[in-house]
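Hey, resending since the last one bounced:
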Amino acid sequence: MMTYRSGLVWLQDDIRLDDNALVEKATAECQQLLFVYCVNPKWFQPNRYGLRSMGAARWRFRAAALTDLKQQLRQLGQDLLVVYQSPLQAIPELITRCGIEVIYSSQHAGFYEQSYARLLRQRYPFIQHQQLTTATLWEAAQLPFGLNDLPDTFSKFRRQIEKQDLRGQIPAPVPAPRQLPPLPASANALFAERKHALPPIEAPAHEYFQGGSRAAEQHVTDYFTSGAAHTYKETRNALDDWPASTKFSPWLADGSLSVRRLHQQLLQYEAAHGSNESTYWIFFELLWREYFHWYAQRHGQRLYAFAGIKRQRPQTSFYGSRWQQWCSGTTAHPIVNACMNQLNAIGYMSNRGRQLVASCFVHELQLDWRYGAAFFEQQLIDYDVASNWGNWQYLAGVGADPRGHRRFDLDKQTRQYDAKHEFIERWHGNVSTPTDWVDAADWPISE
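The structure tokens again:
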């Protein structure tokens, strides 16, 4: 085994010690270790859609996860250096000042996130760069196909996984370390100097969605001791009922919760209480997440392209008034308004709600799907680059859906999931503004 004097663990969407391949390998190979997390200022600046990549609710949740990890590291005699800088600014300085010989980072699903790692490898070829899997059930080498041969639909992906019986080959999660290598001596000055003012926490605390791996562990325990897993398939489409769906996604998204640890907990529940269609459906949802992770890696920048992976341009455009109505929950569709108001208030929306508002966005409002995906990126506390953009492509008919455009009858959906309008009333969905179908700010869409 190679031994390095000083190593750097560059955390991204893997904010945990439990079942973290970076932590395990770095602990085994390094005499000294520096943990760093880069809060990129770019996240809080307007992007090409006039939005922020990191909205207030997600930043509250993420900041809590960082605080939680920092506390856990300190209990082990270590610490987490949180810097308000791009990785391309922060990490070069850390390499120089701490004599870093090896960088451990995760194989991120996002193309632009991967670009930081690629540039660092190019600029610093004299140090070791180890990228490991931290976000998926399987390693790439375990899949029954190469990445370039990823099935073009989820159904084909699932059939191949089940045909090979790969569920039984999911690696067992590795427990958090009981001890860690110390900080490099030069790191003490860094912690003293790097007291950058991070963006303020502006979103109010949520009763249930508390960031961090310890909150994640408690939530998983609470869920599987409640018995809700046995009825998940029947209740998962509820629009606003806490125990109806699993709510694991926020912690999976920022890596506070290991998907392999979650799968282990599911297996233990099935062993103790029996498996049924509902417990399988939890695994089925994890498969969807898995598929979109590899989908994002396979298609790279095409994940964000107007024409999607199918290279078929949708017949949509940009209408400023419709866009504002959708964002503010004031469309002509009460069920959509209620879902959007819920999202804007707490940073979360049910899976059923996401499908309804996306369908409305693409079909009723005829808007460029990328703006909807970008708004979700800003607002959702469980934003995951692969699942978010992959699902929006799917609904827009430019992604992995073999049926093309998937349109929901909003009136029928309201009758089915909110027949008494309780959800609509709770989230003030009946407030609307007149629809302006002609807007001087409208423009045609280009790539």
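The longest strand covers residues 30-38.

Sorry for the duplicate.
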